[in-house]
């Protein structure tokens, strides 16, 4: 796919994200032909979609759509619960002939069929057999819901190895979303410091402000390079490293961009805080980044191998 074709795809995705609802997101993607694009060029399809969802801070079932597509399934994939220590915890755990389910659903994930990842593979369950309720944590506007219950286990529709491969793709998608969100914070902060006056000149002319925003720009560029490298490697550990880099970019953007906004960013009227809340709620959906960092360290000690260094190019940074 050349740059002109990629720009056309990005424009179409931007329009879709701006006008869809969580309930219509998956259907609108099908109508747009996103699944065909995924089959042809998965890296471009996932990266552009996730980046634009992140930039818009959209409440959309991004990970569920990507994971289902990666598994070749039609339905709703249950995400792991927000748990520390295990990375990630299994949404489904065998209990004799039953299955104990404890996971998350994204907004708009209201199909009749649920796919629950377990240690033995992905199990298919009827959605009506489980309890669904608000999580009560994180960003309430994101619409994450908890799904739980003890039900008879269903058929295994994908192997544990297929789930592991899909999870790596999901982590690349989440990395792109976090990088897109960080880029949105950087854009808003840059526009603000151009017009905010102090001592008779824009605060964007102050060296300290420049340095903070430059650091954010570098972190975003590194995150996107890490994600591109992970797509090239198609490797579990590169995908984890990409998500860790994107987490760093998101956290740094939240800190520095908030600081250059000053007190106004605390106000409900300004809205910058909504970007921070969205980023905090996305962190940990496919494993907490601090636990993932620890896993990378343990892998290094055990195998003396680290993920390949991200390859920086002139085309790495977008918007």
Quickly give the CATH architecture of the largest domain.
Answer: Up-down Bundle
Number of strands: 10
At the fold tier of CATH, the topology name of the largest domain is: Butyryl-CoA Dehydrogenase, subunit A, domain 3
Radius of gyration of CA atoms, rounded to a whole number? 20 Å
Low-confidence stretches: none
Strand content: 5-15%
How would you portray this structure in words?
- This protein is of the alpha+beta class and 319 residues long.
- The protein has three domains: 3-71, no CATH class; 76-158, Butyryl-CoA Dehydrogenase, subunit A, domain 2 (Beta Barrel); 162-303, Butyryl-CoA Dehydrogenase, subunit A, domain 3 (Up-down Bundle), CATH 1.20.140.10.
- The protein has helices at residues 3-19, 25-32, 34-40, 42-56, 62-71, 160-195, 207-233, 236-261, 272-282, 289-303; strands at residues 76-77, 92-95, 98-105, 113-118, 121-126, 131-134, 145-152, 156-158, 197-198, 201-202.
- The strands form three sheets. It has a four-stranded mixed sheet with strand order 1-4-5-8. Strands 2-3-7-6 form a four-stranded antiparallel sheet, with no helix packed on it. It has a two-stranded antiparallel ribbon with strand order 9-10.
- Strand 2 (92-95) and strand 3 form a beta hairpin.
- Helix 6 runs antiparallel to helix 7 (207-233).
- The longest helix is centred in the middle third of the chain and has 36 residues, at 160-195.
- The protein is globular and about 70 Å long.
- The model has no long low-confidence stretch (mean pLDDT 91).
- InterPro entries: AcylCo_DH-like_C (IPR036250), AcylCo_DH/oxidase_C (IPR009075).
- Residues 165-278 form the Acyl-CoA dehydrogenase/oxidase C-terminal domain.
- GO terms for molecular function: acyl-CoA dehydrogenase activity.
């Amino acid at each position: 796919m050349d740059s002109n074709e990629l720009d056309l795809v990005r424009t179409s995705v931007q329009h879709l994200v701006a006008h869809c609802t969580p309930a219509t997101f998956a259907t609108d993607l099908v109508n747009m032909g996103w699944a065909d694009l995924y089959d042809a060029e998965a890296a471009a399809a996932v990266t552009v979609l996730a980046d634009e969802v992140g930039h818009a801070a959209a409440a959309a079932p991004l990970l569920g759509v990507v994971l289902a597509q990666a598994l070749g399934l039609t339905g709703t994939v249950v995400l792991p619960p927000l748990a520390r220590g295990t990375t990630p915890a299994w949404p489904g755990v065998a209990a004799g002939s039953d299955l104990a389910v404890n996971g998350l659903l994204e907004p708009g994930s209201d199909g009749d069929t649920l796919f629950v990842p377990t240690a033995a593979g992905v199990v298919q369950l009827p959605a009506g057999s489980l309890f669904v309720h608000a999580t009560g944590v994180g960003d309430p506007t994101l619409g994450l819901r908890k799904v739980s219950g003890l039900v008879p286990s269903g058929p295994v529709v994908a192997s544990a190895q297929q789930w592991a491969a899909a999870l790596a793709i999901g982590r690349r998608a989440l990395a792109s979303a976090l990088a897109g969100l960080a880029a949105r914070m950087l854009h808003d902060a840059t526009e603000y410091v151009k017009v905010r006056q102090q001592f008779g000149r824009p605060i964007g002319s102050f060296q300290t402000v420049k340095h903070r925003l430059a650091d954010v720009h570098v972190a975003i560029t590194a995150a996107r390079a890490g994600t591109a490298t992970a797509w090239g490697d198609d490797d579990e550990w590169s995908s984890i490293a990409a998500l860790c880099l994107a987490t760093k970019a998101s956290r740094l953007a939240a800190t520095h961009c908030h600081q250059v906004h000053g007190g106004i960013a605390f106000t409900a009227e300004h809205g910058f805080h909504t970007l921070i809340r969205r980023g905090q709620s996305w962190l940990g959906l496919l494993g907490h980044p601090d636990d993932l960092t620890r896993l990378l360290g343990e892998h290094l000690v055990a195998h003396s191998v680290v993920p390949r260094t991200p390859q920086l190019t002139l085309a790495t940074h977008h918007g």
